[in-house]
Amino acid sequence: MAFLIQVVTSFVSSLGFGIIVNAPRRVLIHCGITGMVGWIVNWYLLLIGYNTYISVFAGSVAVSICAIMFARKLRMPTTVFNLPGIFPLVPGISAYQAIQSFVSAEYIRGVELLMKTFTISMTMAFAIVMIEVFYRLVMRILNGELNKKTS
After folding, report:
1. pTM for the complete prediction?
2. Where do the H-state alpha helices sit in 21-51?
3. What span, in angstroms and rounded, lies between the C-alpha atoms of 85 and 54?
4. pLDDT by residue (tens digit) across 102-112?
5. Count of beta carbons in the 10 Å neighbourhood of residue 100
């Protein structure tokens, strides 16, 4: 039951964030699906014992792959799907706890939590960029653009 609640919540939060960032109405369901897929991958890897960084990386890879697939299918930029799709993976609770630690004068704990938040965020960004670059490289190879000589 907890899994179902998390899946529905990740879908709704991605869909809602898609509304906030003015994604076109016709792609909102796809934004929700993208976020839901990323969360399911993240949740499953955490469940079987992987650490937060690996599970967030894999979830972000899943979001990026879904975003590319939906972008090609619906002829939209990948950002339309990446931004709402990554939303459920954002480390909001650790950012909140870091600020709370700073306010309560627990500076060392605050810095630790801030660094955790930063590294998770960078892991997410790296995964998205890595998949995007890999996809573009593969498409250039398939289209024969890498073998052409420039004059």
Report:
1. 0.88
2. 28-47
3. 18
4. 999 999 999 99
5. 13
Cβ atoms of residues 31 and 80 within 8 Å: yes
Domain hosting 130: range is 1-149
Tokens of 98: 């870091």
Q: 113 and 46 in contact (C-beta within 8 Å)?
A: no
Smallest CA-to-CA distance from 86 within 125, 138, 133, 129 is with 125
The tally of domains found in the chain comes to: 1
Q: In whole angstroms, give the CA distance from residue 151 to residue 142.
A: 21
Measure the CA–CA gap between 8 and 130, rounded to whole angstroms. 28
- Dmax over CA atoms of the chain, in Å, equals 63
Q: How far apart are CA 85 and CA 31, in angstroms?
A: 6
